[in-house]
């Protein structure tokens, strides 16, 4: 751990936290709902995911057994709001079928392993990429792994820490090596970054004057 970088990361987190308080992310009532949300959230806004989840709840399908037993066409229609809904329906089916067959539909048994063993297993499943796998590990399994995404790349590029072409693994390593491995911290830090990236640090017209990181941002005031 680089003590100076660790100190700066804590400063960044505190600035965001002081502005918004805890983000209370991931919004879900069950571990399975977190997983469904993580799969459906790819390439779409959260409000579209919420709509799809409410459809599944209304049809009493928000469970491993429910997804497994649902007709594919019906499932596709219920999650249509999430874009690429045919592929996502297959991802849900494949995931639920796997956990049902190998773990008797018991998520606690599925999660009861080392973080990186669980990550490897998740990544072996159809349609589960790094961000989705890590979101499931952090927010559903409640194990300390740092989730990164496009917001992380943009915010920390503008803060002066990342190049624009940095890989997912390189970003994740930066946080994992310089922060205490604490599930609650990783959870809210990621949520704070996404909050800043969504509300202030957008791609073309960042709202630097209102951003909680304005005082330490290396690119504030520049023509972005």
UniProtKB/TrEMBL annotation:
Q: Which UniProt keywords apply?
A: 4Fe-4S, Endonuclease, Hydrolase, Iron, Iron-sulfur, Metal-binding, Nuclease
What GO MF terms are annotated? 4 iron, 4 sulfur cluster binding; endonuclease activity; metal ion binding
Q: What is this protein called?
A: Endonuclease III
Q: Which GO terms describe its biological process?
A: base-excision repair
Note whether Metal-binding occurs among the keywords. Answer: yes
Q: Quote any Pfam family the record assigns.
A: HhH-GPD
- The chain positions of domain HhH-GPD read 40-199
InterPro entries listed in its UniProt record: DNA_glycosylase, HhH-GPD_domain, HhH_base_excis_C
Task: List the SMART domains.
Answer: ENDO3c
Respond yes or no to whether keyword Protein transport is given for this record.
no
């Amino acid at each position: 751990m680089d003590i100076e970088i660790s100190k700066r990361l804590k400063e960044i987190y505190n600035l965001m936290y002081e502005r918004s308080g805890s983000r209370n992310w991931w919004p879900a009532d069950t571990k399975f709902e977190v997983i469904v949300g993580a799969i459906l959230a790819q390439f779409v806004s959260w409000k579209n995911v919420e709509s799809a989840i409410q459809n599944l709840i209304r049809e009493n399908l928000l469970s491993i057994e429910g997804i497994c037993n649902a007709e594919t066409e019906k499932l596709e229609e219920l999650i249509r709001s999430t874009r690429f809904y045919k592929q996502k329906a297959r991802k849900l089916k494949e995931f639920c079928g796997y956990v049902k067959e190998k773990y008797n539909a018991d998520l606690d048994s599925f999660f009861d392993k080392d973080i990186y063993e669980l990550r490897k297993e998740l990544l072996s499943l159809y349609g589960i990429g790094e961000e989705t796998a890590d979101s499931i590990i952090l927010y559903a399994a409640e194990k300390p792994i740092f989730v990164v995404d496009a917001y992380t790349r943009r915010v920390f590029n503008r803060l002066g820490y990342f190049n624009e072409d940095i890989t997912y693994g390189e970003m994740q390593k930066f946080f994992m090596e310089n922060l205490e491995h604490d599930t609650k911290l990783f959870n809210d830090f990621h949520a704070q970054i996404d909050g800043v990236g969504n509300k202030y640090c957008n791609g073309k017209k960042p709202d630097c004057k209102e951003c909680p990181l304005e005082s330490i941002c290396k690119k504030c005031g520049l023509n972005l």
